[in-house]
Amino acid sequence: MKLRKITYLTSKIFRIFAFVIIGLATTQIVKAADVTFNGTTNTDWAEPTNWSTGTVPTSVDVITIDASKSVAIANGTTVSVERMILLAGASLTNSGTLTIAPTGATIGSAFTVSGNCSFVNQGTLTLTSANQTTVSNTITINGATNAFTFNGTNTLVGKTRNIFAVGADASATIGGAGFTVGTFAVPSLSTVFLLDGVNAALTVNSGTAINMFIGLGMKGVSQNSPTSFTNNGVINIQAGSAVTGTTTQGVYLWNSIDNTSSTFTNNGTLSSTGFARPAVFGIGSTATVGQQTFTNNGTATFTSADVAGALAVFINKSYQFTIDNTGTLNLYSGYRAIQLYDNTINQQINNTGTINITKGVIASVATSVATYPGINNNTGGVINFNLGFPNASKTVTEKFVIKNNSGATINGSCTFAASTLVTAAGSTLSPGDIFGGVSGYGIMILTPPTPGTKFPLYGNVSMQIEGKTTAGTDYDRLNCTEIDVTNATMSVTLGVFYSPVANDEIPLIYAATSKTGPLSNTTKPSNWVSVSNSNNESVKYSTTAIIPNFENNQIYFHFTSNGLILNLSDEYYSRVELVDLSGRIIESKIAKGEIMIGKHIKGIYFMRLITNNKVYTTKICL
């Protein structure tokens, strides 16, 4: 009995020991292995002889595609691996189902390319980074001229770090239909596109759409100089629930290396919306000297939340920064649409496209007029302040100067603070807001540079009239306490619903204190004449007309089928002459009272009136 019991116990212990040994062996079997695709037989992932182990990899394996090798996952094939590494020149095409999901113990990127690599997904892709806080990007790009094509179904997940991280001297293009990114375990550490290596470059191809949903502390695109990012497709960056936080930006350009530059070029459609603060588009720097440039040749929309402190474009350091806009730039902010730092080095915006500001001030933190940064609105450039209908009381500039240069236009019902607007010959101001390409009516208010001085107005003022009752509602108006209009012109157009009656007079430019004038020229509809006095530049409607600049003499003329009739003084004789454009006198008459001239004559002439020892000349069309 005792021997049998000992034998039984010995057998039981042996069985337990055997199970432990088998368990340990099993554990060794499932340990992650480094497996290399060498393509010995063909390009098929499912062919065992193509692999260094002689077997198809499992979900715990770290895969390396050998240099210059091509591998394809066929339709209907399901693949799951720990990590994926493409050596230089390698390519991977997925037409099946591919999952790359590192475990928590794995440090490193889920997917790494090494230069001249190609990845094409036209099946189902799930790509997840490791749950580590260091060196755990979803995709790390090394080397130049890599290409990613995202078709099919793409799920990209960043747990703690970046979806795409581009290293030094590395570059890649992203093409295909695109993808949506929106799942992050620790958003405050995450960026969708990080370019943090010297000379890193990334390009989104035309036809590719990328949607990003980011949270607190995240960035959609982050660039450290010198790097370059080019968008030829569609990028939408949406902040969830109007996130706050000092490190949250849709697009963020920064500079940690002196005397280097970064460029972000948008040739497609870029939208960054929903941020509470600090910015939809931000700039920062730890370097003392550097240049960052955002170039928009397509359509860019930066919209912050409608709350105090929100910023659409925010430049927070005193160093070189330029926005070059040749496309359409749309800005909306509950606080400031643009906030630059100052211009002690070089901060400016150059516009030859269209800038639409629907809410928010453009401002800086400059301490003197001499250091105000600003916008150079150049030939072809249009700035629309679409703030409401109308909203003349809204000041749109603060320590920020707009230079409206020749060939440029500013539209809007708004107020420009002192020393924040400079007009040039050949430029245009139009007080009406622009809605859907249709101009409305409004009041634009200019402020003299300093109290007691006159605002020096140059260029043309474009005015519309749809009625005569209320400025800003029935007709456009330009207001300024003190203004000099002698170097400016005005063009006036009538709306289709306005039927003027005799002696309707519309004050289009109004100076509350004093005005130097008149305008050098006013282009106006038929039967309207210019009226200038110490406070107003107006137009007046009459069935007759008044010889320009001589309204106080009450010299009227009107057209009939028999020619032109002048109504002159009965007290003295006057001479009236018609002179052609070469200077030849075509007709001359002397009379007093009523004079008729120009019967059966057609064309453009000068009419010269000599009366009461004065000579008046005007151009007429018969």
Describe this entry's structure for a reader.
This protein has 3 domains: 29-407; 408-543, no CATH class; 555-621, Immunoglobulin-like (Sandwich), CATH 2.60.40.3080. The protein is 5% helix and 51% strand. It has 1 helix and 57 strands. The longest helix is centred in the N-terminal third of the chain and has 29 residues, at 2-30.
Count of alpha/pi helices: 1
Bin the helical content. under 10%
Approximate strand percentage: over 45%
What general form does the structure show? elongated
C-alpha Rg (nearest Å): 37 Å
Count the domains.
3
* Intertermini distance: 141 Å
* Main beta sheet: 33 strands, mixed
Concise overview:
This protein is mainly beta and 622 residues long. It has 3 domains: 29-407; 408-543, no CATH class; 555-621, Immunoglobulin-like, CATH 2.60.40.3080.
